[in-house]
Amino acid sequence: MMKDTSAVQDRTHRLSEKASGVAFRFVLTMGIVNLFADTTYEGGASINGPFLGSLGAKAAAISIIAGVGEFLGYTLRAVSGYIADRTDKHWQITFIGYGINLLVVPAMALAHSWPAAAALILAERIGRAIRKPTVEAMLSYSTTKLGKGWAYGLNTALDETGATIGPLLMALVLFKTSDYHTAYALLLIPSLLALSSLTVARITFPVPSRLEEASAKTTRAQGFTKSYWLYMIAGTLFAAGLMSFEFISFHLSSTEVVTQRWIPIFLAISTGVGVLASLVLGRLYDLIGIRIVVAAVCLSALFSPFVFLGGFWIALAGMILWGIGYATQDTLLKAVIASVLPEGKRNLAFGVFYLGYGVGWLVGSITAGLLYAHSRTSLIAFSLVTQFFAVPFFILAAKGSPSK
Fold first, then answer.
1. 152-204 pLDDT, tens per residue?
2. Which CATH code of 1.20.1250.20, 3.30.300.30, 1.10.1790.10, 1.10.357.140 fits the domain covering 14-205+220-399?
3. What does the alpha-carbon distance between residue 332 and residue 330 come to, in Å, rounded to a whole number?
4. Tell me: the pLDDT tens digits for 386-398?
């Protein structure tokens, strides 16, 4: 009898290890997709601010364009998430989103006025909005085997690796040619590699929901809990203080804190830090839960005085803190929401969360753009207060959550 029990346990253990391996391969494959995707659109983002400035756009216009873009990029996720849940066409929606998200970036090479460039920037964010909830929901099926923090941390690390390569590639092109249009055109290569990798993922993992254990499905909430809404409020406040790189790069360039060619390198350094931060924060979240979220938010909130008051090296230190903020956004916020996902509404849950996040981003971007021209001290105070004020909401949400 004991031998039979031992054999069953061994078989169960082997099956569990096999399932964990499949889940890991799915996260890794989607991470490779996002590596090439981020190389494309973060490469473009690293020069969008100065490019808009070179076409005649002013600081307020650049900040508002970035804010509206992020607003659309977050709020439309609720729509695409709802459609994905109702139609169950996760992969189709994902392909449409990636297609728009990636192909409009090299199309910036054809823009010769700032309104045209702004339209393409907005289109890129809309494409990202379409595919983001489905990707996050599909990844959530791997978290029962890998851990919420580690699954999203690993994916984000590969994501951020691309976000490091893209700006460095743009810096190299600008060093060689000083031509924005050539730089944008070169991004067609990683965009096509991303779409090819996505095709491989679709063929290899046609039904990602099979990655989740059957027992885990019964533990999901049946609706949107109080903790979910508190997490959304916390995320909204955090977003309001986390400024876009387009706006920051305009400041660094226009004040000559750094030269034009150093702008993409600053972004590459901050995202490189984000790669390591994502892995560390993801692991720590699975170990200690909300405490690492609070610590990361408090640390990243300090970026604004460094960036807007410092010289070259102080501003670079601020960009490192800003990179930690983006790692917090892309790893920890996804992990906390994954802990309170309602059954049957995963895509919608991610989409609605990002709706709140997008509202915070839009309000923050408009406020930052208006404050910048009048008082940088007020701008810094606004950023600090909104992000620190998010902390008690994270704590309250975690107290009412059934998991970390």
1. 888 888 888 898 899 889 989 988 888 999 999 999 999 999 999 999 999 99
2. 1.20.1250.20
3. 6
4. 999 999 999 999 9
